[in-house]
Each structure stands twice: as C-alpha cells, then as structure tokens.
Amino acid sequence: MDVKNAFLNGDLKEEIYMKLPPGMSMIAAHEVCKLRRSLYGLKQAPRAWFEKFRNTLLTFSFTQSQYDSSLFFHKTTTGMVFLLVYVDDIIITGNDNGLITKLQNMLSSTFKMKDLGHLTYFLGLQVHYGDHGFLLNQHKYIHNLIELAGLQNANDADTPMEVNVKYRKDEGELLPDPFLYRQLVGRLIYLTITRPNISYAIHIVSKFMHSPRHLHLAAVRRIVRYLIGSPTRGLFFPKQSTLHLTAYSDADWAGCPDTRKSITRWCVFLGDALISWKCKKQESVSKSSTEAEYRAMSTACSEIVWLRGLLSELGFPSSDPTPLRGDNTSVIQIAANPVYHERTKHIEVDCHYIREAFTRGVITLPHLITDLQVADVFTKALTRQRHKFLNSKLMLIDLPASI
Questions:
Q1: Among 72, 179, 268, 310, which residue has the fewest nearby CB atoms (within 10 Å)?
Q2: Global confidence as pTM
Q3: What DSSP letter does each residue of 352-403 carry, written as one string?
C-alpha cells in the first residue's frame, strides 16, 4: 500500500510559523502563517508522520517491534499479521486474511491510501514467486545502472574484481569530474540489498569517493560489467527452509593497504536463506590476525543476538545455541576460555562480548575449514571457480529458474 501525501498527516507538537507562500496576499505587514499540520520540507515532518501512523496502529491492537521500529505485528487465535513501513510505502502480510482486510479498511479510512495489490515491486526490489519459494532481485535497477555507466554493448566480466589487485587512494591520475563515479558507487551500494556477492568490491571502491582516480573508475566499470552477465540474479528464499540461524565469520587482517586496518566479514542464514551480512573496515588496527578475527566474530555475535530476539518476539524462539562458524582455532579458544591471558589484554572489553554470549549458551563456536568459509566472498577478490561456488552457497540464482 502507498500513502498519498503522507507528511501532511502529521500533527505538530511545536508552534511553527512560516512566511506566506507566493501568490497569497498580505493583510498586514510582517504577517505569517501558523502551521496546524506538518508540511513537506519541515525537519519535523517525517517524525510527525511516523508518530501519527504508529499511534493509529497501536489503537488497532498492533504491537511495535522492540528490535525494528518500522515493524508492527498482531497475533490472533487464527494467526499473525505483520506490517512493515518505509516512509509512505507499506507491506502487509500474514496468515489471518480477515484481519488483513480489516487493517486495510482501517488504514484507508484514516489516511488516503492506494492499494497496489500483490507485492511484486518495492523500492526498486522485484519479487518473483514460485512453487518452491520466492526470489528478490533488482533487474530493472541493474538495467538502468548499466545505461548510466554507458556499458550497454560491453562484454561481461566473470568476477566483480580482479584477483590480487590492491587499490590505493593516491594511485593513478585524478578524475577531472568525480560526479559519475560517485553516482555509480552510490547506486551500487543500494544494489547490495539483493547482490551480497559484490559487497566486497563495493566496499573497496566506496573508499575513494572523496578523490576518485581513473583506476578506481575502471574498477567500478568492471563491477558493472560483471552485472551485465547476471542481471536477473538475486536472493532466493525457499519455502521449506527451517527457522534455525547459522552464522559465518571471518576477517582479512590488515587488508587495507592505506591504513592497514582489517576487514570484518560475516553472514547469517535462516535455514538455507541468507538474511544478513556485513563487509566493513574495522575501526582500529589489529595487532594480529587472531585479534582481527576476534573482532569480526564479536560483531557477528551482536547480529545473532539481535536476530534471535526478533525471532523470539515474532513467536519463533530458539532454544538451541546458534552456531557461529569460523576457521581460526585461536579465536575459538580465546572466546571459550575464561582465563584472561597475555594474548588478549590489548583487546577492548567490548570485544569480549562474544565470550559472555558463549558462556550463556547463545552461540556455539564450531571450527570450519577455510575451503567452506562462506564469508570469504565478503573480504577478498576470488577466482571465477571460487566465486561461482560461493554464489551457490549464498542462494543466489538467476531468472528464469524453477523457483
């Protein structure tokens, strides 16, 4: 559903005055308007609209999630209904059709809304349904991106980034106009919603937004050329998937050639479906690969705790610990060992959050051989064979396919 003129529905708590709009005659000098409702352009408008929408749902016996403020849900004896809102775009789903109809009628009577029907397109994401599950991709978005880059007739690339190539901030000649570079990278960042396999490449090129160079633009064009060969690829969510969380964590020690900071990488699966991932440079320099991987594992642990809380709130509590798989035995020993020793004294206290989670039984730390480390795709450029293998592990498939 789509709300028409959403920000005009917000109620203002502050006294706000504005100049008379053009074309409105003044009766007295220095006359102004006192606003009774919010307008587009006010800083308070988004907050006022969301507060009005939130209060409306709460009066209809919906509950706002403690883990995601944009998610609302209502449990009945016959099922559950979920509502997800992004500014003025709303998704409603559930297995209580009667409550869904009542909710739609209530919202339509309170706000001016348009029912867009069955979900097929949302914020640039296309939804494809099948007998075995559904697929999320951004086919139209990729097509527009290729046109923006001017690569409609270019050959496709096997991988998003060349292997063993390190890009530095001062290498090569500066671009005379960085506008196109920034525009392409900005759009590529949004594309990672359904294309996690390009997250590492986007992470690299986004570091040079301030002063991009010709080599950096060539790297961006290679990413676009990679998309040419797989424009319909997206994330597949199978219907028969279980509700058990599994996580993978890894790090690229001193991976940034300019700062020597390490790169955190992790991904979380709900059954067979990939639902969360991260590729991010760490905030401080790690003195060893063990420390870098320990930090990455601690960050992944925070995501696991959040997801477990969200699932429990929605009625799917997990009694078993969530496996957090890593390929560094030293990290596993440090997290499982309560003894404070020489190797960990320089690691910040917040990193030991993972040790507490392990002790409480929230996670387990099974060792994983490097060849099966799914998180590899988020921290390094891979060969064609390795990249293809990990794509299948991430449940990335192309259309047309039997979904």
A1: 179
A2: 0.89
A3: GHHHHHHHTTSEE--B--GGG-GGGGGTS---HHHHHHHHHHTTEE-SS---
